[in-house]
Every structure is written in C-alpha cells, then in structure tokens.
Specification:
Elements (H helix, E strand, L loop, with lengths): L24 H10 L11 H17 L3 H26 L9 H17 L6 H4 L3 H20 L4 H7 L2 H32 L2
Length: 197
C-alpha cells in the first residue's frame, strides 16, 4: 500500500486518478470494481454517487432472496479488502474518495435487515415498488451516508488508524452495521405504530 499522496479534500471537486497506462487486464477489472463500475467517477460527492450505484445493484441482488444476498455481501467485504487495497496502489492514494467498492459493500450490509424482512423472491418485484419498500430503501441510504460521512467513534478510529485495503473497508463496514441497527430500530417503531392504528 502506497501512502505517497495525501487523501484529497472531499469538500472540493476532485478528478479521479486515472488507471495506469501499463495496467494488466486483471488490474483494469479491479480498478473498475474499485470505482464502482464508474459510479465513483463524479468529481463531487463520489461516495454518495457510489452508494447510489451500490443501491441500484443491490435491488436485483436482493431479488435472489436473503441467503444469496447475505453470501454476496459477505464475499464483497472479503474481496473488497483486496480490491480497495489494489485500487489504492494504482491510484497512489490511500482511500481516495473515488474508490467506492467500500460504499457498495456498506450499503449492502445496511440493506441486510431489509432483505431479511422482505418478501419471497417470487413476489419481490411487485413489492419493491410499494411506497413502504421505497421508504425503507431511502431510509437505509440516508442512514448509511449519515454514519459514513460523520464518522462517529469507532468509525473515525478505523478510518484513521487502520491502513491498507482493510482500512478502506473497515470504516464503511462499521458505519453500515451502525446504520443497519438504527434502521431496525426505526422500522420496528414504525411498524408497531402502523399496526396499532
């Protein structure tokens, strides 16, 4: 892992570091996964746009059912350590904001309770467009971005103290777990309120 270049100021517009000209075919694949298939390319708020990309990809993945979505999410976290680490090396910047694979894995973790509480795959597409489902998806997105941007402890500790690909992934994983916990709490209160009225 190379830390030669400081992390760009995310409050300003930043250009995504280009793919090295001599990159191998495997590195090209890793780079494009690292930047979320292009969802992390915007100059401003690449993490938010990357999360949007991850949410879009999550919807068809959730249609497979909870267990397949859980397995895919866990695998995305494991291989994400390598993807984010290798992309950082190619960019010569630790945790460049345009690396958004960690946001993809983070929003998928946040959506695990939604997937678990969701309907059977046979009825998924009919129910995902209902207002309550859309609200639940938007709430998951907002909560994940809230924790990922503000980085309360222990997220801030992981962001500053853990290096390499694990460091890129870990703060988003913790943010996602915290977001999922708050999502469950809000949905529990809301469902109880709606069923009692």
């Amino acid at each position: 892992m190379t830390d030669n270049s400081p992390k760009p100021d995310i409050s300003k517009a930043n250009v995504c570091p280009p793919l090295p000209a001599n990159a191998s075919a495997l590195d090209r694949i890793v780079y494009w996964l690292g930047i979320g298939l292009g969802s992390g390319l915007p100059r401003r708020a690449p993490g938010t746009w990357g999360t949007v990309g991850g949410l879009i990809i999550a919807i068809p993945l959730m249609s497979l059912g909870f267990v397949p979505f859980l397995v895919i999410t866990l695998l995305s976290c494991v291989i994400g350590v390598w993807i984010c680490g290798r992309t950082s090396e190619m960019m010569q910047v630790h945790d460049d904001p345009h690396i958004v694979w960690d946001e993809w894995a983070g929003i998928w973790i946040t959506l695990l309770p939604f997937s678990y509480m969701g309907v059977a795959p046979a009825h998924f597409w009919q129910n995902i467009t209902q207002p309550f489902s859309i609200f639940a998806l938007v709430l998951a997105f907002i909560l994940f971005r809230f924790f990922d941007i503000l980085k309360p402890p222990p997220i801030s500790w992981a962001d500053k103290k853990v290096a390499g690909g694990l460091g890129v992934m870990l703060d988003d994983i913790i943010a996602a777990i915290m977001a999922a916990a708050v999502w469950i709490f809000i949905m529990f209160i809301l469902i109880n309120y709606l069923t009692s009225n």
